[in-house]
Each structure stands twice: as C-alpha cells, then as structure tokens.
Amino acid sequence: MKSSIVICTKEREEDLRKALRSIAAQTRLPDEVVIVDSGQDEELGSRLASEVPSQVRFCYVRSIPGLTVQRNIGIRNSTGDVLMFIDDDVVLEPGYVEAVLTAFSQDKDGVIGAVQGRITNAEPHLAGKQPVLCRMSRAFRQGMARLFLLSDQGKGRLKASGFPSFTYRSDEPGFVECLAGGCMSFRRSVFDKISFDEALVGYGCWEDVDITRQLLRAGYRIYYAPLARLAHYPSSNSRSSASEVAVMRMLNHHYLYRKHSDGSPLQKAAFAWSMLGLLLMHMSKGPRNEGIGALIGLIKVLSGRNPLVKSTSSRSTNRA
Q1: Are 78 and 32 in contact (CB under 8 A)?
Q2: Is the separation of the CB atoms in 294 and 246 below 8 Å?
Q3: Are 273 and 161 contacting, i.e. CB atoms less than 8 angstroms apart?
Q4: Structural contact between residues 244 and 192, judged by C-beta atoms closer than 8 angstroms
Q5: 48 φ, ψ to 5°?
Q6: What are the C-alpha distances in Å from 236 to residues 11, 14, 88, 135?
Q7: Which domain holds residue 252?
Q8: How many CB atoms within 10 Å of residue 31?
C-alpha cells in the first residue's frame, strides 16, 4: 500500500523542518512527501529537499493561499493509495505512518475511508502543569463548549449543532464520527466522491467538519488509531488576527449548517444555541477585537450577508 504525506504550509520554514525530520525518523517511511506552499519564498522547496530521505519522493508545489485549495492541490499531485494530511507545525512519533497504514490494511471490507490519529499534547490533564488562573480559564471554556454544543474533546461524535467532539484521550481504537484536520488520513479512492470545499477560504475554519460530513454521507467510516501519535506545537507565524478568526468561525459555522443540516427543529435550535455560545466564547476570551469580530460575523449571518452562503446559494438546498 503506497503512502503519501501531504503538508500544506505558508511562511513556516522552521516548523516545517521539524515536521519533515519527524517523517524521516519513521519506522516505516512514506513513499512520498508532498509540500503545497502558499508562501512568498519561491526557493523554499530547494532548501527543504535535503530534509527528506533520498528513497522518498519529494514533491514541492506552489499554490495560492487557502488551506482547502492547497489540500486539493496536494491530492492531485500525490500518487499514494493512502494520503496522510498533517499540519506543518506537528512532530510525528516514529510509529505514526506504520499505525495509519496498519489500520487501513486490516480493513478487509474497505469500509474505512479515513483514519484519525492522536494528538498527544491536546489532552486536558496537561492543564495541571499550568498556573491556577490558566486552569480555571480552561475549565470555563470547556464548560462553555459543553453547554453551548461547541467543539470540544470527547468521544469522537458530531453534536446536533454540527460541531465535533474530538477524540484525543482514549487509548482504545474504534470508529468515530469526526476528523481533526492536523492528523487525518484518507484512502485515495474517497476523493472520487468528495473534495475539500474551496468556499472555505483562508485557513479553512471547520474544513475538517465539512470533509467529515462528506465522507460519512458517501458511506465511509472513520477509524480512530491511537497508536498514530503526534504532537502539535501551534506556530505563531502566518496566522490570522483574532478578529479575523472570530468572523470566520461565525460565517463558516453558518455556511456548514446550511450545507449539511436536514432542517429539523432540533438541528435549527442546536445551531442557534451554538451561535450564541460561539459569540459569548469569543467575547469572554479577553481581546476586545475578538469579541467585536464575532459580533460582526453574527450580524452578517442575521442580516443575510454571509458571503459564503451568497456565493454558493445555487448549490445549497438547505436553508436556515
């Protein structure tokens, strides 16, 4: 089973080098590494080539900015039977590739369309090493997320609001309902039926939720492989402002509700409740511009001025 690792990146050379070095240390090397770069440094590819073992095909592709655009370019430029998407600011444990390929190879019926790995430093117990105020703030955010049906860590299920409850802590493998964008792997064949939604511009907030729903709707299942372990070290380079992120979260959540909701009263109520929670969450985080950004996003939704919905209205059949 041939494998490709696809990394979408922008202006993060040092982070990317660490990721590539962790790939080079794998117990089972991938057959190729595909870098899709939307940064301004056109010489980056030539500098990175030495970080990839000689027996691994190295493909460097330039792209316009946009995570979902870059992911689709990565699919088109890869040749593996299994495509492993990882973020540019992660470090893989040595058995990551082998664990992902084992999960796919043991699926004799071909029902597994994607495999979710484990992010080892995204676990709540790590908060115990932080100051008291940080732990209290984290506990408050977790409580808000549960109360308002927002994204959190749990049992790998999709909530009625459309938000995921990611699986990160469990040591038990098994089937789940959601993928996390930083460590998701796919059979190549699933992309005959689905693709990353390029309407989700920028860093594509909730693009992992969208591809999850597409995958499940196409009849595939998602498998959680806890032995596919990595650590995520969020980079400070090339990130959107807090205000921009808040606007994007409001607009993208509304867009995905319109795209995937069945229009039932339960889902409508859960969506409205989660939008309120998302607004309150951003307003409670501290930076004033983050709360303002969330409010701007909500106003655009309520006034029918969500540009994502307008630009894709001809394809959408669900209405809020």
Answers
A1: yes
A2: yes
A3: yes
A4: no
A5: -85, -20
A6: 10, 11, 12, 22
A7: 242-311
A8: 18
Rounded to an integer, what is the distance from CA 227 to the centroid of its chain?
19
Residue 135 domain-assigned (yes or no): no
Q: How far is CA 302 from the centre of its chain?
A: 27
3-state DSSP helix/strand/coil % of the chain, to nearest 5: 45, 20, 40
Sign of CA dihedral 295, 232, 77, 190: negative
Amino acid at site 109: D
Below-70 pLDDT ranges, the chain: 123-130, 238, 286-287, 311-320
Each residue of 266-281: b (16+ CB within 10 Å) or e? ebeebbebbbebbbbb
Same domain, 10 and 86: yes
Q: Over the stretch 164-188, which tens digit does the pLDDT of each residue have?
A: 999 887 899 999 999 999 999 999 9
Is 177 inside any structural domain? yes
Cβ-Cβ contacts under 8 Å for 152 (sequence gap 6 or more): 142, 145, 146, 163, 165, 166
pTM of the model as a whole: 0.92
